[in-house]
Each structure stands twice: as structure tokens, then as C-alpha cells.
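Follow-up to my earlier ticket, as requested here are the two runs.
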Amino acid sequence: MSEVMRFYYEGEPEPQMSEEWEAFMNDPDRFRGYPALPDPEDITAEELLEQLQAVDTRSVRDSNDPLLSVPPEQIDPPVEDTDPPTVVASGPEKDAAGVHPKAEIWAVFSESVTEARMELKGPDGSPVAGTSQQENEDIAAFLPEQPLAVDTRYTVEVSGAKDAAGNVMSGPHTWSFTTGADVPTVSGFEPGRDATDAPPDIKVMMTINEAVTDVQVIIKDPSDTAAQGTLSSDNGNTLWTFTPAAPLAASTVYRVEVSGAKNDSGNVMAPYTWSFTTGETSPTEHKAAG
């Protein structure tokens, strides 16, 4: 039997017995066959069953198909994607001030896109030299060729982003930010400010917002005596660690002073300070007590 056969019947199991097949064939409301199907009068129910079993079952639809329980006119057609992509997040933030001249410039889209373009413009509207690129399917970035000018307002424009359905963003998305001075700053440290019960043998760590040199770290007790130790750097000279030569005194407030950090533009950070308190027992005392 070369023609594809399809059956449509609602609320009934598939015929199994000869009598069931005969009733099925003779009911025009339940039986659908192509011209190659033999006339019921020219073939026995057993022969018809044998031929039906020889049909490629991948082309036969039965009562287990959920689509057969819904009239064709009620089946919803596929929903067409007509929504254009939009920018849902960006950096630096809109109207941000004091932005570092080397800060990353990026935009996140509402969906995966291609052909996104980013442009950075100065106060007079002239384009800033740089590269627009997609860092991942839904993120675009702009990389200036040179650090931005200090204390200057810049405008970012994103356009052209197209989704998989071919929808292009409805118009350019723009926002502005203002740069600050090009000086290094401390962006994180440990122990935290005013932390208590810090282990006396703790290492004091600080993160600078860019690669720097000439960093100086001094840790002083209440009598202004500086702790001896070594200073090392990691992560491209942005993470700095002071390791005391001996455990700090127990139950003591220490003041950390960071200064001298210089970036590749030759700008030096302003001194930065914070304090923390050590715990009650030093490692040596704890060992002796045990």
C-alpha cells in the first residue's frame, strides 16, 4: 500500500478485532482513506488488517495523538516573534559621575542578538576611537583605544542589534556618564572596616581598581608601632597582601594605611585607611592553653 493513510476518530480505542475493523471501515464519520485504499467490499476484514499492519506506522496518526482531540480550526498557529531586542542593563550606569577613565563600557540585551553596534561620543558629539564587539550572545562592549579624558561627559549609543527572528531594535539606545580623575583607589579589603575578632595571624589584603606599583602598606597598633612584614601582589598588580612577620597582638585595634599606589599614567592614589580589632587569644597563647 503506497499511499499514506490517516485515521481520525474521537473517544474510541484503536480497532483490534475483525468486527471492530469492519465497523470502523463502514463508518464514514470515522474513516479517512486515500484512493489507493481497497474498497471494503473487495477485501475481507482480515486482509485489510494485514495490510494496515504493513503500513509504516510513522505515517499513521492514532487516537493517542493529542492534536486529534482538538478540531483543526481550534489549533493555535505558531506564535510569530515580532518583538525587537532591547537593552536591559548597561555600564557605566546612566548619569554616573566619577567614572574611572578606564572603566568598562557594555550593554546587555533582552535576548541573543547579532550585528549590535556600540559607539562612544565626546561632549561635542565626535566619535571616540575604539572597537565595538560582542562579548557573548546578549552582551556588547566598546573598547576605547586610549583611556578616556578625566572630568568629561560621554554618551554611549547602541544600535543595529538583531534577534534570530530578524527583528532589529526599534531605535538607538543612548545614555551618558561623566568620568572622574584618573587615580587608583582601594576597591576592597580584608579584614573589613571595624571588623572584630580577626585572627592575630591574619594576612591583610586590599584590592586596587587597576594595576599599580609603588604600593605602601603600614599596620600600626594604638602606640603607633608599625608591624613588620612583607608585601606581595597578585592578579596583575591589583591584589596586594601584607603578611605580618609575627602574629599581631590579641584584643588590639590595628590601623591600616595604604598609600603610594601609582598607575601607568603616573597618577598616585590618595592615602586610604581603615581599622580592625584582633581576637582575644593569640595562636601562641591558644597552643599553650591546650
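Run two:
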Amino acid sequence: MTQNIADIHADIAALLPRLRRFGRAVTRNKEDADDLVQVAVERALLHTGQWEPGTRLDSWLFRIMKNAWIDEVRGRARRGQVLAPAEAGEHVGSDPSEAYVHRLAVQQAVGMLHEDHRLVVGLVLIDGMSYKDAAQVLEIPVGTLTSRLARARESLQALLSEAGAMTRMKQ
């Protein structure tokens, strides 16, 4: 079944919240995530003809985002720039809500993960993508995805336990 261009564009627009959520998980920075989504959507719109009808549009877009992020990281490394989202912890303690503090701790812990682990966490745990679909997006076997996810969960648990211990020590 072939879709016309307007339908594909509407489907891409409907995916924007999921793309943005994945972008934030991968980049650890709101502005970088927005830029990444913009680059991915621009590439998708320019190369709509490369998408094969009958395949998952979301997987195709997530793969474009993953590749765009790899390009960006490599470019930054060549320019000697370091990713340092200092503003992520800027407002800790200014909001008395415990949920806010926990959310920041989780965001910081996810940000400390190795990039491969951040990608699987972003796709599976944050976006809710199935293991099979996430493995296709990342172009890895499902077994590799599950082992990376298990290691990422262990790392997150350790990082969050350390953060909790540090918080209790400060009180």
C-alpha cells in the first residue's frame, strides 16, 4: 500500500513527541534534543522516498536520529567540545517537591551512562519500544540489546543508590 506524501508528513508530525523524548534521553540536554529532532525530521522529509512503505516509520526515524546523533558527537569531538549540561542540576533544592529531586537524579544517572546504554534506555524504558523494534533501530541483535539493557539497569541502580546515599549523608 502506498501512502501519499501528505500522509507521511502527518505521520511524522504525530511522532514528534516520541522523537523529542528519545532525543532528550540520548543528548541529556533539552536544546540539543530539539536540534536533533529538527535534523532528523529534516533528513526524513528530504529522503522520504527512501522509506519503504510497509515498514515502521517510527523505527526509520529513530534510526535517522541515532545516526544524526553519532554524526554530532563525532563532530563535537573533532572540534574539541565537551558535552557538559551543567544546567541539569542548576535548580536542585529550589523546588521542595521530592518528585522533582528524584526526576533530576534519574536524569543525571541516565546522563552518566555509556552512550550505548543511554540509547537502549531511551528506546526501551523511556519510549516503550519493544526489544525487537529497538534492536532494529540500533541495528544490533536482540540479544545484544537485552544484555546492554540489563547492564544499563544495573548501572542506573548503582548510580541512584550512590546518589541516595550521598543525599542522606548531607542531611
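The only thing I checked on run two: The CA atoms of residues 17 and 110 lie 19 Å apart. Let me know what else you need.
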